Structure formats: structure tokens, C-alpha cells
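Posting this for the archive.
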Amino acid sequence: MGLPVNKLMLGVAAVAVCMGVAHAQPAADSRPGAAAEDKSPLSASRLFQVLTADVAVQRGEYDVAAKIYLELAINLKDARLARQAAQAARLARQPALVLEAAKVWAGLEPDSAQARNMLAAVLISQGPLTESKQFLARWIAETSDPTEVFKNLNRVLSSQKNRREVFDVVREVAGPYDLFDAHMAVAQAALAIETKELAVLQPAIAAADRALQLQPGFDLAAEIKGELLLRTDPQQAIKFLTEFGARYPNAHDSRYLLARILLSENKTQNAREALVGLVSKWPEDVSMQYVLALANYELKDYKGAETVLLKLLDNEESDRDRVLTLLGQVNEDQKRLPEALARYRAVGEGDMWFGAQQRIALALGKMGAVAEARAHLKAVNATPEQRIQLALTEGNVLRDANLHKEAFEALEIASKSNPESTELLYDLAMAAEKLDRFDVAETALKRVIALKPDDAQGYNALGYTLVDRTTDRVEEGLKLIEKAHALAPEDAFILDSMGWGYYRLGQYPKSVEYLQKALDKRPDPEVAAHLGEVLWKMGQRDAAHKVWRDALIESPSHPVLTETMKRVAE
């Protein structure tokens, strides 16, 4: 007596169904003891081993059974025993043993589709793809419906850590098939890689295009193409998704992606217009409503944001903690600080809780309760990494209260305890600059650059400090900013630094070029102050007044903006 065949075949069947493969059939009798009934001669000792394995299976000791079957299969070169070993090893949840047994089985019975399929499934789920690729390609070729394989291919490969290798394999095995799901599998494999590499993106976008040719209007294909385009060319992604949404107004996901991209690209008014239409069409989608509230908030339409958020607060399907946090920020920006505090304190102990504790401290600081804010931060139960964030928040609280010396001292202590934290070093440098401690600022920023040589912000901060605060190191500062610009060519603050550097060198037209680009990307009052000053210096006073006036509408009391206007006008 042995374990019934349906139980032993469960693992193989599950993988076969997952991959959409239907041709792997069990043998007429695949009970653990079946091999002993074969006509092949077995010595008494070998027969005893088979019976021992059979008893082990009945007792649920599958790992014991698998090892016995595998040893017998290798010694006797018996494919059926190898099959029994692989099946028992799968039930024992012994991946390495399954792989070893499946290799032996496929080697002893190379023409067996069942053996090949199990080996392919095991290799795909846990082994190197270089070994499984040939089995996978043959598996797809022999299945009656390759479409089902491609539909599930990326899910089956999800355990593989090398996502680039997965993409290469999926692209290769999908190559011979001009099927919608084959092209989608390629595009989805690329989406799983965090890369801007054209060698990945170009064939993936082409695959998404072909999928859309085969099934025009397919929303998921458009969404994936939009995501891939976004990685290197946000404007091209916006153009494609806008045109697709116009042709297919019921394309929920790709139209929603467009709205989110518009918001991330600071096209906030366009994002809000898109979201109003989406919420009108899909009023039950709480995610869309939240992003609409976020767009309203970014546009400083606090009433509009609050209206949406209060409705979401009563909706059981919404993320209550996320809604409370944004609602607190809306209240905070309106200087309704007690209400903001109440919102932040209502946030539950989930993903948003830690951020809410930081917001509580910032709100307390704005209310003048700086000591209470600092005490609150010290009382938060946090990990070492979170402690760094709390130290940064404490520095912000003190800075906002114009307690620059205290901010510097607090950040200096935190930085000494966490000498590898570039965030603390960066903020320490900014605090040192406020106290005219340029030696400390320069040392800290050089350390930031040493720790993160590929991060643009350290170069930009040091470069801007030299450009803005010195007279004899402007060219040195501009070279650092140019390095930052090379690393992050679209960063608005780095563009502002570039413009300010050229201004300090007297190259006004080039300065205006960079400052205008920075302001177009991010309407920041400090950038507006810089651009206005350069225009004023060039004699374009009407243009300067317009830049400043537009900035004053949004930030009437911004210190850099108001100081610049007063100083230049005099």
C-alpha cells in the first residue's frame, strides 16, 4: 500500500496549472511502491528500501522517502524511482532535493514531457534561469495553448531575484510568438526592473506597442507603456496617455496614471482637471478622490481639498490614516494648528504613524511650544534609522523658530552619533551656513560627497554655498554645480544654482536661461527672487516686476523674495 497518486502528484499539478500546461499526465500507477512491482529485478535489500520509502510516505515522512527513492534511482538508473523521489521531495518542501531528483529524472527519461515540465518548473521557481531557459522554451512550444503560459509567466518567475535576467529570458522565449500575451509578458518583465536602460526600455515599449496593435484600447498595455515612457521622457508619456485617453475614455488605469504623472511633473492644474473628470466618471474610486484632494492641496485650494478629504473620512474604503495626515497638513497650512494636531494625533499605528509624530512636533513648534515639540520627539519609540529622521525633524523645528544656534548644536550631536548619515551631514551644513560657519559647512558637504559620490545634492549644496557666499571661489562653486547638473539635469533647484552661478560670473543671458527653466519646472519664490534680480540687473525692470509680482501672489511674505525686492529696488 502506498500514498494515492493524486496526493503525490499535487505539487507537479499545481505548477502545471499555474503555467497553463495540461499535457503532464500521471503514470498509470505512481504509488511509491509501484516501482517494486516492475519487472526489473530488485535484490532483497533494494526491495526493502522501496518498502521503507513507501512506509515513510504513509507516515508523512516525505523527506526520508525522497532520499531513499533518489538513491535507488541513481544506483538502478530507474526513471520511475526518480519521479517518485521528485514527487516526495516536493511534498516534503525540500527545494534542493526536488531540483536534484528532477534533474536525475529528466536525465534518465529525456523524452518524457512530464519529467521536462517538472524540471523546468523547479528550475524556474528556484534555480538559475540559464539552466531552465531551454526547458521553458520547449515547454511553451509543446503546450497546446502558449497564451496561457505567457499570461502567467512573470508570476511564475517572480521568485527570481535577477529581474534583468528574467527580462532577457522572457524576451527570448516570447520572441517566436506574435501573440498579445507574449508581447505583454515582455513589457511586464521590463516594468519589474528599476532601470532607465534603453536596451531594456526600447524593446519593452515596442512590445507594448505591438500588444496595442493586436488589441487596440487595452488599458493595461497602455498603462505599462506609459510607465515605461515615464522613466526617460515624462513629456512623451503625457503625450501618449493623453491621446490614448481621448480615444478610449473608459480606460480607467491609464487615464489615472496620466493624472498622477501630471501631478508629479508639477502640472498641477492639468492634473486637477483630469482628476475632476475621472472622479465624475468613477465616483466610487477612493484613490482617485484622494489624489484629487492632493492636487487641490498643491494648488492651495484648501477648501476644495478639505471638502474631498472630509467625505473620504466617512468612507470605510478609504485609507483613513492617509486622509487624516493630509487633512492635518491642509489645516496646518491654514494656520489652524490645534485642528492639525488633532488630525495627526488621530493617526493609527500603521504606515503613517511615524510621519504623523514628526508632523505633531512641527505643528507644536509653529505654535511656539518648541520645548514640548522636542520632548515629544524624544519620547517617540523609534528604530535607529527613525532616530535619524527625528533628529532632522528636531533641526527643522528649531530652524523654523529661528533658533539656528540650537539647531546647529542638536544636529552636530546627532551627526556625531551617526557619522555616516548624509542627511544629517547635509542639514548640519545648512545650519552651519546660517551661523556663518562656512568651514563646518564645507567639511560636512565634502563628507556627503565622499559618502555619496553619485548623489547630485551634495555637489549642488557645496557649489551654491561657494557661489553665493564667496567672491574668490565662484568658478570652483560653479564647477561643482555643473557636476550636480550632469547627475540630475532636470532638477529645478540645481538649475537655479546654475543660473545663480552664471549671474555671479556676470554671464547674465546664460543665467536667465537656467533660472527661467528652473522657474518653469518649479514655481519657487527663491528662484523667482533670483530671476527677478538678474532681469533687473539687465535693465529689464518690467519683466523683473512681473516675475516678483507673480511669486508674491503665492508667497507674500517669503523672506528671500521680499529681501531681494527691497535690496534691489534701493
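Confidence is low (pLDDT under 50) at residues 1-40. The CA atoms of residues 524 and 551 lie 8 Å apart.
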